[in-house]
Every structure is written in structure tokens, then in C-alpha cells.
Amino acid sequence: MATEKKAFVLRISPEMLKELEQWAQEEFRSTNGQIEYVLSDALKKRRKSLRQTPNRNQEAEN
């Protein structure tokens, strides 16, 4: 299944980039692949967290 990907510029400190490059190498990924993996994992955790917490709008109304 082919998915279309959108390119964009990412501004990142040299120190953070170096650490991401090392992490990617340890996990046999490209730097871009590692960034995608980390972002994907963070989004999955966020979605799970949002499903487990009550609707904030309902809390504000009560």
C-alpha cells in the first residue's frame, strides 16, 4: 500500500539532530524514519490518552 508523504522543513538543534542520528543508527533506521517512528509513537499514545480521559467540555459544563 503506497502512501503519499508531504515534505516539510524541520528546524532542529545540532545536538538534538546528532542524538536522533545516533538513535536511528542503533535501531537500523534512517534519521527521517526514526523521526517518523517517534512521532507516530507519540500520536498513538496521545490518542490512547484522549480515549481514556473524559470529555473536557463535559467537565467544564459541570
TrEMBL record:
Q: Give the Gene Ontology MF terms in alphabetical order.
A: DNA binding
Which SUPFAM superfamilies does the UniProt record give?
Ribbon-helix-helix (SSF47598)
Q: Quote the Gene3D superfamilies the UniProt record gives.
A: Met repressor-like
Q: Where is the Arc-like DNA binding domain?
A: 6-45
User: Entry's Pfam families?
Assistant: Arc (PF03869)
User: Which Gene Ontology BP terms does the record give?
Assistant: regulation of DNA-templated transcription
Record's protein name: Arc-like DNA binding domain-containing protein
Q: Which organism is it from?
A: Runella defluvii
